[in-house]
Amino acid sequence: MNASHAAAHPRDPEHRPPSQRKSDPSEATDAPAIERRGDIWHLRSYRAVRQVLRDADATRQAGFNAELSRRSSLRQPVLFQDGAEHREQRTAIARFFTPKTVDERYRTLMTELADALVDDLRAAGAADLDDVSLRLAVEVAARVVGLTDSRRPGMAGRLEAVLSLERLSAASPVRRGVGMFLAQARMWWFYLLDVRPAIAARRREPREDVISHLLAKDYRGVEILIECITYGAAGMATTREFICMAAWHLLEAPELRERYLAADEPGRHRILHEILRLEPVVAHLYRRASADLEVEHDGVTHRIPAGALIDLDLRAANADPAAVGEEPLRLRPERELAAGVQPAALSFGDGAHRCPGAFIAIQESDVFLQRFLRLPLEVVAPPQLRWNELIESYELRGFRVKVAGG
Ligand code: HEM
What we know:
The chain is of the alpha+beta class. The protein has 14 helices and 13 strands. The protein has helices at 46-54, 66-69, 83-93, 99-124, 129-145, 155-163, 173-204, 210-216, 221-252, 254-262, 265-278, 314-317, 321-324, 358-372; strands spanning 7-8, 32-37, 40-43, 59-61, 126-128, 284-289, 293-297, 300-304, 309-313, 377-381, 384-388, 393-397, 400-403. The chain has a 6-stranded mixed beta sheet. It has a 3-stranded antiparallel beta sheet with strand order 5-13-10. It has a two-stranded antiparallel ribbon with strand order 7-8. The structure holds protoporphyrin IX containing FE. The site of protoporphyrin IX containing FE (HEM) has 25 residues, from helix 5, helix 9 and helix 14.
Protein backbone atom coordinates (compact mmCIF):
# COMPACT_ATOMS: atom_id res chain seq x y z
CA MET A 1 0.00 0.00 0.00
CA ASN A 2 1.46 3.38 -0.89
CA ALA A 3 0.70 6.95 0.10
CA SER A 4 -1.93 7.41 -2.58
CA HIS A 5 -4.05 4.75 -0.90
CA ALA A 6 -3.65 6.38 2.49
CA ALA A 7 -6.71 6.24 4.72
CA ALA A 8 -8.19 9.50 6.06
CA HIS A 9 -9.21 10.24 9.60
CA PRO A 10 -12.98 10.31 10.03
CA ARG A 11 -13.18 14.03 10.60
CA ASP A 12 -15.03 16.73 8.81
CA PRO A 13 -12.87 19.90 8.66
CA GLU A 14 -15.91 22.04 7.81
CA HIS A 15 -17.65 21.31 11.09
CA ARG A 16 -14.70 20.85 13.35
CA PRO A 17 -15.15 22.66 16.68
CA PRO A 18 -12.33 25.06 17.61
CA SER A 19 -9.25 23.41 19.04
CA GLN A 20 -8.27 24.02 22.66
CA ARG A 21 -4.80 22.63 22.05
CA LYS A 22 -2.50 25.43 23.15
CA SER A 23 0.65 23.76 21.88
CA ASP A 24 -0.64 24.28 18.33
CA PRO A 25 -4.27 25.26 17.92
CA SER A 26 -4.00 25.56 14.14
CA GLU A 27 -2.38 22.26 13.26
CA ALA A 28 -4.00 20.20 10.53
CA THR A 29 -5.78 17.15 11.90
CA ASP A 30 -7.01 15.59 8.70
CA ALA A 31 -3.75 13.95 7.66
CA PRO A 32 -4.06 10.28 6.68
CA ALA A 33 -4.12 7.77 9.55
CA ILE A 34 -1.45 5.67 7.87
CA GLU A 35 0.85 7.23 5.32
CA ARG A 36 4.14 6.32 3.71
CA ARG A 37 6.42 9.15 2.64
CA GLY A 38 9.63 7.79 1.13
CA ASP A 39 11.05 5.31 3.61
CA ILE A 40 9.18 6.74 6.57
CA TRP A 41 5.81 5.50 7.71
CA HIS A 42 3.65 7.97 9.58
CA LEU A 43 1.05 6.42 11.86
CA ARG A 44 -1.67 8.65 13.29
CA SER A 45 -4.48 6.40 14.45
CA TYR A 46 -4.56 5.43 18.12
CA ARG A 47 -4.88 1.75 17.33
CA ALA A 48 -2.00 1.55 14.86
CA VAL A 49 0.34 3.60 17.08
CA ARG A 50 -0.42 1.47 20.13
CA GLN A 51 -0.02 -1.74 18.15
CA VAL A 52 3.49 -0.76 17.02
CA LEU A 53 4.49 0.40 20.51
CA ARG A 54 3.37 -2.96 21.89
CA ASP A 55 5.18 -4.99 19.25
CA ALA A 56 8.61 -4.96 20.88
CA ASP A 57 9.65 -8.11 18.99
CA ALA A 58 9.29 -6.49 15.57
CA THR A 59 10.60 -3.00 16.38
CA ARG A 60 13.62 -1.21 17.81
CA GLN A 61 13.87 2.16 19.52
CA ALA A 62 14.74 4.80 16.91
CA GLY A 63 13.86 8.05 18.72
CA PHE A 64 15.98 10.57 20.65
CA ASN A 65 19.09 9.85 18.51
CA ALA A 66 19.11 6.22 19.76
CA GLU A 67 20.51 4.89 16.48
CA LEU A 68 23.44 7.31 16.64
CA SER A 69 24.14 6.39 20.24
CA ARG A 70 24.18 2.63 19.53
CA ARG A 71 27.26 3.08 17.35
CA SER A 72 29.36 3.47 20.50
CA SER A 73 30.51 0.45 22.49
CA LEU A 74 29.13 1.87 25.75
CA ARG A 75 26.17 0.27 27.51
CA GLN A 76 23.01 2.00 26.38
CA PRO A 77 20.55 3.82 28.68
CA VAL A 78 17.24 2.07 29.35
CA LEU A 79 15.43 4.21 26.79
CA PHE A 80 17.70 2.93 23.99
CA GLN A 81 17.77 -0.72 24.96
CA ASP A 82 15.63 -3.35 23.30
CA GLY A 83 14.73 -7.00 23.74
CA ALA A 84 15.86 -9.16 26.66
CA GLU A 85 18.40 -6.62 27.94
CA HIS A 86 15.68 -3.96 28.12
CA ARG A 87 13.16 -6.29 29.80
CA GLU A 88 15.71 -7.20 32.43
CA GLN A 89 16.53 -3.55 33.12
CA ARG A 90 12.85 -2.57 33.41
CA THR A 91 12.17 -5.41 35.82
CA ALA A 92 15.10 -4.32 37.97
CA ILE A 93 14.10 -0.64 38.16
CA ALA A 94 10.34 -1.26 38.50
CA ARG A 95 10.63 -1.17 42.28
CA PHE A 96 11.56 2.52 42.25
CA PHE A 97 8.35 3.48 40.47
CA THR A 98 5.43 1.54 41.96
CA PRO A 99 2.59 3.73 43.29
CA LYS A 100 3.33 2.34 46.77
CA THR A 101 7.01 3.36 46.60
CA VAL A 102 6.12 6.76 45.18
CA ASP A 103 3.57 7.32 47.93
CA GLU A 104 5.79 6.14 50.75
CA ARG A 105 9.11 7.52 49.62
CA TYR A 106 8.46 10.61 47.54
CA ARG A 107 5.15 12.10 48.63
CA THR A 108 6.69 13.86 51.63
CA LEU A 109 9.52 15.20 49.48
CA MET A 110 7.03 16.45 46.87
CA THR A 111 4.90 18.13 49.54
CA GLU A 112 7.85 19.82 51.25
CA LEU A 113 9.27 21.00 47.94
CA ALA A 114 5.92 22.29 46.70
CA ASP A 115 5.33 24.15 49.97
CA ALA A 116 8.79 25.71 49.82
CA LEU A 117 8.40 26.77 46.18
CA VAL A 118 4.98 28.31 46.82
CA ASP A 119 6.34 30.12 49.92
CA ASP A 120 9.26 31.47 47.83
CA LEU A 121 6.85 32.67 45.17
CA ARG A 122 4.65 34.39 47.74
CA ALA A 123 7.69 36.08 49.26
CA ALA A 124 9.11 37.17 45.88
CA GLY A 125 5.71 38.35 44.63
CA ALA A 126 6.38 37.13 41.07
CA ALA A 127 8.31 34.44 39.22
CA ASP A 128 8.63 32.58 35.94
CA LEU A 129 6.64 29.41 36.46
CA ASP A 130 8.96 27.51 34.10
CA ASP A 131 11.84 28.16 36.56
CA VAL A 132 9.74 26.98 39.48
CA SER A 133 8.59 23.81 37.71
CA LEU A 134 12.16 23.04 36.63
CA ARG A 135 13.33 23.08 40.24
CA LEU A 136 10.51 20.83 41.33
CA ALA A 137 10.88 18.31 38.49
CA VAL A 138 14.66 18.13 38.85
CA GLU A 139 14.59 17.64 42.61
CA VAL A 140 12.01 14.86 42.50
CA ALA A 141 13.59 12.90 39.64
CA ALA A 142 17.05 13.46 41.15
CA ARG A 143 15.90 11.61 44.26
CA VAL A 144 14.69 8.64 42.19
CA VAL A 145 17.94 8.53 40.24
CA GLY A 146 20.18 9.20 43.24
CA LEU A 147 21.64 12.58 42.23
CA THR A 148 21.68 13.89 45.77
CA ASP A 149 25.32 14.62 46.59
CA SER A 150 26.21 17.55 44.34
CA ARG A 151 29.34 19.49 45.15
CA ARG A 152 27.61 22.80 44.45
CA PRO A 153 24.00 24.02 44.30
CA GLY A 154 22.52 24.70 40.87
CA MET A 155 22.10 21.20 39.40
CA ALA A 156 18.82 22.22 37.75
CA GLY A 157 20.64 24.88 35.73
CA ARG A 158 23.50 22.55 34.80
CA LEU A 159 21.12 19.87 33.63
CA GLU A 160 19.08 22.39 31.69
CA ALA A 161 22.27 23.47 29.90
CA VAL A 162 23.08 19.84 29.03
CA LEU A 163 19.60 19.30 27.63
CA SER A 164 19.41 22.52 25.63
CA LEU A 165 21.36 20.91 22.80
CA GLU A 166 20.74 22.57 19.50
CA ARG A 167 20.28 20.45 16.45
CA LEU A 168 23.70 20.93 14.88
CA SER A 169 23.36 18.95 11.67
CA ALA A 170 22.30 22.04 9.67
CA ALA A 171 24.81 24.45 11.28
CA SER A 172 28.00 25.74 9.61
CA PRO A 173 31.19 23.72 10.38
CA VAL A 174 32.48 26.44 12.76
CA ARG A 175 29.20 26.65 14.62
CA ARG A 176 28.97 22.91 14.76
CA GLY A 177 32.49 22.70 16.21
CA VAL A 178 31.76 25.33 18.86
CA GLY A 179 28.41 23.76 19.61
CA MET A 180 29.92 20.31 20.10
CA PHE A 181 32.67 21.67 22.31
CA LEU A 182 30.12 23.48 24.49
CA ALA A 183 27.92 20.41 24.71
CA GLN A 184 30.88 18.28 25.88
CA ALA A 185 31.98 20.92 28.38
CA ARG A 186 28.51 21.19 29.89
CA MET A 187 28.26 17.42 30.16
CA TRP A 188 31.58 17.10 31.98
CA TRP A 189 30.65 19.93 34.30
CA PHE A 190 27.46 18.07 35.22
CA TYR A 191 29.47 14.86 35.59
CA LEU A 192 32.10 16.37 37.90
CA LEU A 193 29.75 18.35 40.13
CA ASP A 194 26.72 16.09 40.29
CA VAL A 195 27.17 12.57 38.93
CA ARG A 196 30.65 11.68 40.21
CA PRO A 197 29.96 12.66 43.84
CA ALA A 198 26.71 10.66 43.71
CA ILE A 199 28.62 7.62 42.46
CA ALA A 200 31.29 7.99 45.16
CA ALA A 201 28.66 8.23 47.91
CA ARG A 202 26.90 5.11 46.64
CA ARG A 203 30.10 3.13 46.30
CA ARG A 204 30.59 3.74 50.01
CA GLU A 205 26.98 3.05 50.88
CA PRO A 206 24.46 1.80 48.27
CA ARG A 207 20.91 3.14 48.50
CA GLU A 208 17.54 2.38 46.93
CA ASP A 209 18.00 4.33 43.72
CA VAL A 210 18.91 4.00 40.06
CA ILE A 211 22.61 4.87 40.43
CA SER A 212 23.09 2.25 43.17
CA HIS A 213 21.41 -0.30 40.91
CA LEU A 214 23.68 0.60 37.95
CA LEU A 215 26.78 0.34 40.15
CA ALA A 216 25.66 -3.13 41.26
CA LYS A 217 25.55 -4.00 37.54
CA ASP A 218 29.13 -2.70 37.06
CA TYR A 219 28.19 0.30 34.93
CA ARG A 220 31.09 2.69 34.26
CA GLY A 221 31.02 6.36 35.24
CA VAL A 222 30.35 7.56 31.70
CA GLU A 223 27.52 5.04 31.27
CA ILE A 224 25.93 6.29 34.48
CA LEU A 225 26.32 9.86 33.21
CA ILE A 226 24.40 8.94 30.05
CA GLU A 227 21.65 7.27 32.10
CA CYS A 228 21.37 10.40 34.28
CA ILE A 229 21.04 12.61 31.19
CA THR A 230 18.37 10.25 29.87
CA TYR A 231 16.40 10.62 33.08
CA GLY A 232 17.00 14.35 32.82
CA ALA A 233 15.32 14.45 29.42
CA ALA A 234 12.71 11.73 30.01
CA GLY A 235 11.71 12.64 33.55
CA MET A 236 12.70 16.18 34.39
CA ALA A 237 12.24 18.18 31.17
CA THR A 238 8.90 16.49 30.41
CA THR A 239 7.38 17.05 33.86
CA ARG A 240 8.59 20.64 33.90
CA GLU A 241 6.78 21.37 30.63
CA PHE A 242 3.65 19.52 31.68
CA ILE A 243 3.28 21.48 34.92
CA CYS A 244 3.45 24.75 32.98
CA MET A 245 0.99 23.52 30.38
CA ALA A 246 -1.47 22.33 33.02
CA ALA A 247 -1.16 25.62 34.92
CA TRP A 248 -1.74 27.58 31.70
CA HIS A 249 -4.97 25.71 30.96
CA LEU A 250 -6.20 25.94 34.54
CA LEU A 251 -5.36 29.62 34.95
CA GLU A 252 -7.18 30.53 31.76
CA ALA A 253 -10.32 28.60 32.66
CA PRO A 254 -11.49 29.77 36.11
CA GLU A 255 -14.32 27.22 36.22
CA LEU A 256 -12.01 24.35 35.53
CA ARG A 257 -9.56 25.68 38.11
CA GLU A 258 -12.35 25.78 40.71
CA ARG A 259 -13.38 22.30 39.76
CA TYR A 260 -9.81 21.06 40.02
CA LEU A 261 -9.29 22.63 43.44
CA ALA A 262 -12.59 21.27 44.78
CA ALA A 263 -12.07 17.70 43.49
CA ASP A 264 -10.68 14.72 45.40
CA GLU A 265 -7.40 13.18 44.26
CA PRO A 266 -8.86 10.86 41.58
CA GLY A 267 -10.90 13.81 40.24
CA ARG A 268 -7.83 16.06 40.11
CA HIS A 269 -5.75 13.37 38.41
CA ARG A 270 -8.50 12.92 35.84
CA ILE A 271 -8.31 16.60 34.90
CA LEU A 272 -4.51 16.46 34.69
CA HIS A 273 -4.60 13.31 32.54
CA GLU A 274 -7.04 14.99 30.16
CA ILE A 275 -4.75 18.02 29.83
CA LEU A 276 -1.84 15.68 29.12
CA ARG A 277 -3.89 13.76 26.55
CA LEU A 278 -4.69 16.97 24.72
CA GLU A 279 -1.13 18.30 25.03
CA PRO A 280 1.26 15.32 24.84
CA VAL A 281 4.67 16.63 25.91
CA VAL A 282 6.46 14.14 23.69
CA ALA A 283 4.80 14.61 20.34
CA HIS A 284 6.38 11.81 18.32
CA LEU A 285 8.04 8.49 19.09
CA TYR A 286 10.09 6.59 16.53
CA ARG A 287 10.69 2.93 15.95
CA ARG A 288 12.64 0.98 13.31
CA ALA A 289 10.85 -2.15 12.06
CA SER A 290 13.11 -5.15 12.67
CA ALA A 291 10.66 -7.50 10.94
CA ASP A 292 7.76 -6.98 8.54
CA LEU A 293 4.74 -5.52 10.32
CA GLU A 294 1.10 -5.28 9.38
CA VAL A 295 -1.11 -2.43 10.55
CA GLU A 296 -4.76 -2.05 9.77
CA HIS A 297 -7.01 0.96 9.35
CA ASP A 298 -10.60 1.12 8.08
CA GLY A 299 -10.43 -2.46 6.84
CA VAL A 300 -7.24 -1.90 4.82
CA THR A 301 -4.06 -3.71 5.81
CA HIS A 302 -0.73 -1.94 5.27
CA ARG A 303 2.54 -3.89 5.24
CA ILE A 304 5.48 -2.04 6.77
CA PRO A 305 8.70 -3.74 5.64
CA ALA A 306 11.58 -4.59 7.95
CA GLY A 307 14.07 -1.70 8.05
CA ALA A 308 11.45 1.05 7.65
CA LEU A 309 11.43 4.00 10.04
CA ILE A 310 8.08 4.48 11.77
CA ASP A 311 6.95 7.89 13.04
CA LEU A 312 4.33 7.45 15.75
CA ASP A 313 2.40 10.70 15.89
CA LEU A 314 1.14 10.90 19.48
CA ARG A 315 -0.57 14.24 18.96
CA ALA A 316 -2.73 12.77 16.21
CA ALA A 317 -3.26 9.42 17.96
CA ASN A 318 -4.39 11.16 21.15
CA ALA A 319 -6.97 13.07 19.11
CA ASP A 320 -8.35 10.00 17.36
CA PRO A 321 -12.14 10.06 17.95
CA ALA A 322 -12.26 6.25 17.75
CA ALA A 323 -10.27 6.15 20.99
CA VAL A 324 -11.15 9.37 22.80
CA GLY A 325 -14.62 10.18 21.52
CA GLU A 326 -16.18 13.30 20.03
CA GLU A 327 -14.45 16.69 19.89
CA PRO A 328 -11.02 15.24 20.55
CA LEU A 329 -9.33 18.65 20.52
CA ARG A 330 -11.44 19.96 23.35
CA LEU A 331 -10.57 19.66 27.01
CA ARG A 332 -13.30 17.51 28.52
CA PRO A 333 -12.23 15.63 31.65
CA GLU A 334 -15.55 13.76 31.73
CA ARG A 335 -15.02 12.27 28.26
CA GLU A 336 -15.60 8.55 27.89
CA LEU A 337 -12.57 6.78 26.51
CA ALA A 338 -12.90 3.58 24.48
CA ALA A 339 -12.21 0.35 26.38
CA GLY A 340 -8.52 -0.16 27.15
CA VAL A 341 -7.51 3.46 26.44
CA GLN A 342 -5.30 4.96 29.17
CA PRO A 343 -6.54 8.21 30.78
CA ALA A 344 -3.74 10.27 29.20
CA ALA A 345 -4.11 8.21 25.96
CA LEU A 346 -0.59 7.64 24.59
CA SER A 347 1.16 10.58 26.27
CA PHE A 348 3.21 8.18 28.41
CA GLY A 349 3.81 5.84 25.47
CA ASP A 350 2.79 2.18 25.63
CA GLY A 351 4.29 -1.29 25.51
CA ALA A 352 7.82 -2.13 26.62
CA HIS A 353 9.10 1.46 26.88
CA ARG A 354 5.96 2.90 28.51
CA CYS A 355 7.01 5.64 30.90
CA PRO A 356 7.83 4.15 34.30
CA GLY A 357 7.58 7.65 35.84
CA ALA A 358 3.93 8.25 34.85
CA PHE A 359 2.63 8.02 38.39
CA ILE A 360 5.42 10.20 39.79
CA ALA A 361 4.78 12.84 37.14
CA ILE A 362 1.04 13.11 37.81
CA GLN A 363 1.37 12.99 41.56
CA GLU A 364 4.11 15.60 41.70
CA SER A 365 2.26 17.91 39.31
CA ASP A 366 -0.87 17.58 41.41
CA VAL A 367 0.87 18.16 44.74
CA PHE A 368 2.38 21.37 43.37
CA LEU A 369 -0.60 22.68 41.38
CA GLN A 370 -3.00 22.24 44.27
CA ARG A 371 -0.92 24.63 46.31
CA PHE A 372 0.09 26.97 43.51
CA LEU A 373 -3.43 27.47 42.14
CA ARG A 374 -4.80 28.44 45.54
CA LEU A 375 -2.66 31.61 45.42
CA PRO A 376 -4.36 34.81 44.20
CA LEU A 377 -2.49 34.74 40.89
CA GLU A 378 -2.25 37.05 37.93
CA VAL A 379 -0.63 36.04 34.67
CA VAL A 380 1.83 38.82 33.80
CA ALA A 381 2.97 37.19 30.57
CA PRO A 382 1.65 33.96 29.06
CA PRO A 383 4.38 31.51 28.08
CA GLN A 384 6.13 31.61 24.76
CA LEU A 385 6.00 28.38 22.88
CA ARG A 386 9.19 26.83 21.50
CA TRP A 387 9.98 23.42 20.08
CA ASN A 388 12.70 21.03 21.26
CA GLU A 389 13.58 18.90 18.26
CA LEU A 390 15.59 16.31 20.14
CA ILE A 391 12.76 15.17 22.37
CA GLU A 392 10.04 16.40 19.97
CA SER A 393 8.51 18.43 22.72
CA TYR A 394 6.97 21.83 23.23
CA GLU A 395 8.75 24.16 25.61
CA LEU A 396 6.98 26.93 27.49
CA ARG A 397 9.22 29.80 28.54
CA GLY A 398 8.79 33.19 30.20
CA PHE A 399 5.52 32.23 31.91
CA ARG A 400 5.47 35.15 34.33
CA VAL A 401 3.01 35.00 37.19
CA LYS A 402 2.40 37.46 39.99
CA VAL A 403 0.81 36.97 43.37
CA ALA A 404 -1.87 39.67 43.69
CA GLY A 405 -0.94 42.17 46.37
CA GLY A 406 2.64 40.81 46.27
C1 HEM B 1 4.59 14.47 32.26
C2 HEM B 1 5.73 13.87 32.41
C3 HEM B 1 6.26 12.75 31.57
C4 HEM B 1 5.95 12.43 30.27
C5 HEM B 1 4.97 13.12 29.32
C6 HEM B 1 6.75 11.27 29.92
C7 HEM B 1 6.68 10.63 28.70
C8 HEM B 1 7.40 9.48 28.38
C9 HEM B 1 7.23 8.73 27.17
C10 HEM B 1 6.28 9.08 26.02
C11 HEM B 1 8.10 7.67 27.22
C12 HEM B 1 8.23 6.56 26.19
C13 HEM B 1 9.40 6.72 25.25
C14 HEM B 1 9.37 5.68 24.13
O1 HEM B 1 8.50 4.82 24.09
O2 HEM B 1 10.25 5.75 23.26
C15 HEM B 1 8.82 7.78 28.48
C16 HEM B 1 9.81 6.92 28.89
C17 HEM B 1 10.53 7.10 30.05
N1 HEM B 1 10.26 7.97 31.09
FE1 HEM B 1 8.80 9.34 31.12
N2 HEM B 1 7.53 10.94 31.00
C18 HEM B 1 7.25 11.79 32.03
C19 HEM B 1 7.80 11.77 33.31
C20 HEM B 1 8.78 10.90 33.74
C21 HEM B 1 9.37 10.89 35.07
C22 HEM B 1 8.94 11.80 36.23
C23 HEM B 1 10.36 9.95 35.05
C24 HEM B 1 11.32 9.53 36.14
C25 HEM B 1 11.48 10.07 37.29
C26 HEM B 1 10.39 9.37 33.73
C27 HEM B 1 11.27 8.41 33.29
C28 HEM B 1 11.19 7.77 32.08
C29 HEM B 1 12.14 6.73 31.66
C30 HEM B 1 13.33 6.20 32.45
C31 HEM B 1 11.73 6.31 30.39
C32 HEM B 1 12.37 5.25 29.52
C33 HEM B 1 11.66 3.93 29.72
C34 HEM B 1 12.10 2.86 28.76
O3 HEM B 1 12.62 3.15 27.69
O4 HEM B 1 11.86 1.68 29.07
N3 HEM B 1 9.41 9.97 32.97
N4 HEM B 1 8.35 8.87 29.18
